[in-house]
Amino acid sequence: MKATRLFAESFTCVIFTCGAVWSQSYPVKPVRVIVPFPPAGANDIAGRIVMPKLSEQLGQTFIIDNRSGAGGTIGTALVAQSKPDGYTLMIQTVASHVANAHLYSKLPYDALRDFVGVSPLGRLCSVLTVHPSMPTRSVAEFITLAKKRPGEILHGHSGIGSFTHMNGVLFESRAGIRLTQVPFKGGGPAVIALVSGETQAQVAAISELIGHIKANRVRPLGVTAAERVPQLPDVPTIADTIPGYESCTWVSVFASAGTPRPMIDRLNAEIGKALSDPDVAARMTAQTMDPAHRPPQEIAQRIRADYETIGKLYRQLNLKLD
Fold it and tell me: CATH class for domain 2-123+250-316?
């Protein structure tokens, strides 16, 4: 018994020591960072701000790899099926990550078990915008028009199960209106559709729309944060019209389950360091994403909470894809 205990203690010590050594030498080659949507979406924007700083700090390239399709499930599956060695990561919003689990009857991964959160990059909120041809100039006017024209207003989003889709569905539910949801292959194409007038409305990430808002190519009506955002100080909150309304999420870095904890901890610390860099923080803030470094266990808690909240919403609305 004593010999067995000594062996077990020694084995545990070896594993811990190896993990510490791995984390100290990691990374020894380029790291692939999958964004499961096309370029120009919020996940992509955050990644292209933070990953170059991470490359600089760690001396290896963190390469953004856009793998879009099926509301983010194709790229997400690639990460779930990758070797848990820290060399394949993913940038995804927590809301989108868990929403697909309630939409699809079959997924090639388990959203709760096949991943481990590394760190958030930023807090992401959205804004209800309309094409300038729309006659509405407030959230209340938009709701009134939508009630007069049920199903006629086209709401573009970045794919079934995406954060933009969830925002549109939530807004419909809370406002008591019916829009026609139009999916696109990512945030970039969905925004282009709004700017061109192909769609008339969108509740998308502020980071995806702020440039078009400032150029008067789209008209903002209300933000989904509980308070006004400093980058759009003249835009009221949706909560001013629908009390209690709020819809924000974290853009986060994930790794496949089984990635050694020392690597996760080192990545978390390095991301925190990158987000504290004044230039990185300023660029994130300019994109209306508040830097949001948190420990891995807080991501796990947020995932579980969002899983229950979004699941309840989708069941109430009978949203399901087969």
Answer: alpha beta
